[in-house]
Amino acid sequence: MKFSINSTSLEKLLSKVIPAIPPRTPMPVIENFLFQIQENLLTVTGTDLDMFITCTMSIDADGEFESIIPARLFYDLVRSIPDSIINFEVTGNGSLNMRTDFGSYQIGYADSSQFPQVPAITYTKQVTIIGSVLKNAIDLTSFAVSKEPMRPAMTGILFDFTDEGLKFVATDGHRLVRFIYKPLTFEEADQIVVPIKAVDVLLKFAGDSPVSISYTNSNILFRFGEITMISSLINQKYPAYNSVIPLENDNLLTLDKKPLIGAVKRMLLFDSSNFPKVKIGLSENMVEISSEDIDKGSRGTETLQCDYTGVPMEIAFNTHFLYDILSHMEQEKLVFRFESPSRASLIEGAEAAEDREILMLLMPVRLNV
Amino acid sequence: MAVIFHMDLDAFFISVERILNPQLQGKPVIVGGDPHGRGVVAACSYEARAFGIHSAMPIRQAYKLCPQGIYLHGHMEEYSRFSRLVAEIVRKYAPVVEQASIDEFYMDLTGCVKNGRDCMDLASRLQKEIGKHLLLPCSIGIASNKTLAKIASDFKKPRGITYILPGKEREFLAPLPVGIIPGIGKVSEEQLKKRGIDRIRDIQNIPADYYTSTFGKTGLDFWKKANGEGSTFISVHGEQKSISRETTFDDFILEPEVLKNVLLKLTGKVCQTLREQGVKASTVHLKLRYSDFQTLTRAKTIVPTDDDSDVYNTVCSLLDKAFTRRVSIRLIGVSLTNFTQSADQLLLFDSRYQKKKDMLKAINNIRGKYGYSKISYGAG
Description:
heterodimer, A: alpha+beta, DNA Polymerase III, Chain A, domain 2, nine-stranded antiparallel beta sheet, 26 strands, B: alpha+beta, MutS, DNA mismatch repair protein, domain I, DNA polymerase, domain 1, Dna Ligase, domain 1, five-stranded mixed beta sheet, globular
């Protein structure tokens, strides 16, 4: 059986499946790609058992073939071959022969019966969302996802289906991001938590075209372009995030993002501890940003022009957290809503977009303890 | 030329015991616990040393050498209290002080003293004040670096003051046995002796290359120390690098449940210290010694914490992984490293967390007021 594929297009296909291949596993069979050719359609599948990624492309083949081949070797080889045609031949002695302009290679393949079955699930709920919106939502929320395995629910992004829109929420207990996409509303409320690994794949490979999302209580299926991805969901209750978003924060600070982000970045230089702190002093139409390293006797202070209406106060944040939030805000003019130095502060864009709403929330660091 | 003082409290634990109980004066006293148990000698009086007892010797062996000795469990809290009082006095004398251990202090007096006579005067005043106010004897070594100062303080004990004249360091060291150099332990001493190197003079007479090729980096270190080189860096911050507690069992233990119970107690103590110092630790270490003396340590880095249960869970998971042999355990220990100041990052959810924090604070207060054992966790 023979078939030929262009190396660049094959590499492109494999690069979408390789994220599912676990770097280390006690189960050797999943270090392989499931490689199937049927009616001139090549299907490659990879899995770490939590997530299955399948990708297809049309090829010219004179027969059918199904087998497993070592994923890392095959991908690395294809990736290193410059744009050219690779001629494949299955000889039947357990090796896949590849011929290129440079030489020939044999890759051993094995019986595919041991490869885990893609779970056959009947998906009861379905929604379609524009790829660029989904990517935008993930891009703006995923940085706040918790990296601590202690609270599994927070290691994923919450997809909250509500009558106000589709909400994407991420939090690590110190900060929280909520992205609402208003055009999609749901009469029946539903919540699912999608693991960060699946979300990362979406962010990398989803295009502008629509992404179809089907889900049950335990699994989710994404279909975009030629990719199908199934992931198990995080089966844990997401914390009640609505109750921690303050409503009465009425000390308002409006200012330009660019000078602020520059100032915060410089303040990062002045506190080299593991938990760097930046202090924000608020008074009428003036904001003072400062940071210091008491042990080393260094200190930085900057004053920025702004609009501030509210009581004068001093509030401090973890510098990294604040910087992360600022660098993910898309608008040039930002509004901070403070309540007190020990309560959550809200950060939003000054102008509301029509179809989406982004809210970031950051817990302060206690001062003088 | 730097002027470094090293002050060592003579038989510190014993001296404190004698303050607590003056009847111990002039008798062979050994601190270390049950003489029939499996502990080691933590400290012994000069009278006990005459019987051949030295610290770190198994206590049973000590008992064989000196059955008439007085064996005590020791009063760790009292030792710490006296150590703090000594530190207060020392700080009056020197601008830069490093407390190297519970009974050892380095002082940098560079520029504070004009000549050797000044040094001797100052040392003798310090020695007298500590002797008078705290009734504690001490020995002081004065030299141009820390290593030499330590050797000097050890040179004449108890109640000695030894000053190594600047420029005469090599001559001073030459006739001394190699074992006196800090860093040369029994094993290295044995190895050096096998090569005919007995006195520091012998080290000085052979070029450094020889030691580098035979002992590697440590060899070069020996050579440098033997030639009077050493650090003058006094770490003032007294930054603690680790907090640890360990225990040696009287009966060897094989059951993981019992070990975990002990770990719970040890964890409680290290976390208590951690909170008292207002820091959080991010690396948890477990130390295990099997009854055949195979010793292993395992460590795991976690999110910075000062909470007993986080540390306990981590150390238990380390135990589950590390305790693989069916050989009983002789010693077990917990230590914490990698400290960060407790940053008070407020949390969004979890009033539970805040409650726990308040609870831990209350526990610390109770223990501070009424003693450690007045309140403790149940395992589970």
